[in-house]
Amino acid sequence: MSSTSQKHRDFVAEPMGEKPVMALAGIGEVLGKRLEEKGFDKAYVVLGQFLVLKKDEELFRDWLKDTCGANVKQQGDCYGCLKEWCDAFL
Amino acid sequence: MSQFVENPAHLSKFRLKSDLVAHDVALPPSKSKKEVYVGLHLQHIGQKNAVDFSSDEEDQVQDVSDKEEDTEMPDPSGLTDDDLKAALLELGVKAGPIVASTRALYEKKLRKLLQSNGHGCLNGVEKGVLYSDSEEEEENGEEEDKELGSEGEKEETVKQSDQAQQGSSQVELCFQNGGFVYPQCFLLSSRLFPSGSQSVMPDGESSMSSQAFSITRMVEEMESRRSLSTSSDTEIELNGSNVQKHWSRSNRLDMPIVDTMKNQSLYYTPKASPYKWKMKLTQEPVKDTFKDMFPNTDATTTGIYATRRRPIKGAAGRPVQYAYPDTPVSPTTLEKREVERRLVPIQIQILVFLIVMCLLYLIYVCVEDNSFGPSVALLDSLYQGSDSEEGLLLQAETQDVPALSGQE
């Protein structure tokens, strides 16, 4: 198994439904709060942003960094989580 | 070479737009005809050119910078969504929908591409510019010295920064260290040399590239520039290691801005981190192989699996003092032995096999006795060991039997 966290595996295992943004891998309490303040209160909103950026890794990472100040690892975790979710369910 | 402009009608619409932006003229609606731009251009810039003719160098620099800007694309913030998309497409980037949330990102991307293009175009020879920003000042400075023979320029900046207030000087150095080339190119702009960093400056700045150079104004512009765009990611990336070097020289690390900038510069090192992750991944499997090889050995407290080496008997003239157990065996051999103990030994197996074979053969013989005569001899030989009475009786019987069988 590759180096994915439990959170990642939990998220990718099922449709996200109404899960909060903190359910995303790489997004903890602090980052989650910042995203919520910006209006991204649910995971699907962040998914929306991810899709609008055409699932581009660089752009999505930049956006995460600008929006909530995620570091490189957090960006990577979140991107990987969403990408895998999309591969499975989209 | 100086480009003594100009009939604005000969310029492209983009060029006109960029010139207008550079001179802080409000742009007309983007769908306006070129004539509108030309008119505005003549109105504002035409006059200014006359005034600015006092310094040929500046004009040259300005023109070159404008020209360079124009060959790529104008300022991203001034473009409409469609124009931005077209500009990105020209640079080979297929952009997605440009909506409110994505616009900033695409603008940043365009700026990054413009900067890298500008570097590539102008500094084909000065490759140092691409690779390290912190050294760029020195390189530029050195080249400046070589070409223009003026070393005072760089010293002046240092002096000025020394003399300036603590905060502004630190900020200036921070920006220098963090990868902004603007301070340097400000100084250089007054010289002839159209350094690569020149093209980095957006038009707004070049418009103020000036005779009236002051640090405070530069700092303000830096801050405003900074709020609009972060420095190019490539520079930051490459700076990761160089920043440290440069800071040690500057000796002014107190400002919190330095820390945030350092954090920023270190954040965006996506290329570096995957390598680290890969390294970690490759290291993990190595640790587990030993355990795989010997799964049944008891775990020692120290985790060290070692068996005592059998010492050489009588080594160094000493007699054997310690009776060592048998040669150490691997756990697999021990397993084999245990298994063998439980099963029937091979010798006994072979013996049983032979006995069974004999019995079967005898039975076969008995069955075939009716048809084959010579079997009697075998039977006789078998019954030789028995008692005489029994043997005679048997012989009689056997004789009768063949007789009976013979009659049939």
Gist of the model:
Chain A has 90 residues and is an all-alpha fold. Chain A contains 5 helices and no strands. Helices cover 62% and strands 0% of the residues of chain A.
Description:
Chain A: This is Barrier-to-autointegration factor. Chain A: It is found in: Chromosome; Cytoplasm; Nucleus envelope. Chain A: Its main location: nucleus. Chain A: Belongs to the BAF family. The complex is a heterodimer of chains A (90) and B (408). Chain A has 90 residues and is mostly helical. Chain A has one domain: DNA polymerase, domain 1 (Orthogonal Bundle), CATH 1.10.150. Chain A has helices at 6-12, 29-37, 43-52, 57-68, 72-89. Chain B contains 20 helices and no strands. Mean pLDDT of chain B is 62; it is low at 136-181, 186-190, 192-209 and 233-238. The A-B interface holds A 3, 49, 52-54, 56, 59, 61-63, 65-66, 71-73, 75-76 and B 96-97, 99, 101-102, 104-106, 108-109, 267-270, 273, 277, 280-281.
Biggest sheet character of chain B: none
Tally of contiguous helical segments of chain B: 20
Q: Greatest interface and its residue counts?
A: A-B, 17 and 18 residues
Strand content of chain A: under 5%
Number of domains of chain A: 1
Mean pLDDT of chain A: 93
Helical content band of chain A: 55-70%
Structural class of chain B: mainly alpha
Largest sheet of chain A: none
Unreliable spans of chain A are: none
Distance between the termini of chain A: 23 Å
Looking at this protein, list some descriptive labels.
heterodimer, A: 90 residues, mainly alpha, DNA polymerase, domain 1, 62% helix, B: mainly alpha, 20 helices, 0% strand, elongated
Outline the fold blueprint.
The complex is a heterodimer of chains A (90) and B (408).
Chain A: H1 6-12, H2 29-37, H3 43-52, H4 57-68, H5 72-89
Chain B: H1 13-22, H2 34-52, H3 56-72, H4 81-90, H5 100-122, H6 128-131, H7 134-148, H8 152-163, H9 166-178, H10 182-189, H11 196-200, H12 203-208, H13 215-228, H14 233-250, H15 256-267, H16 272-293, H17 331-342, H18 346-368, H19 375-383, H20 388-407
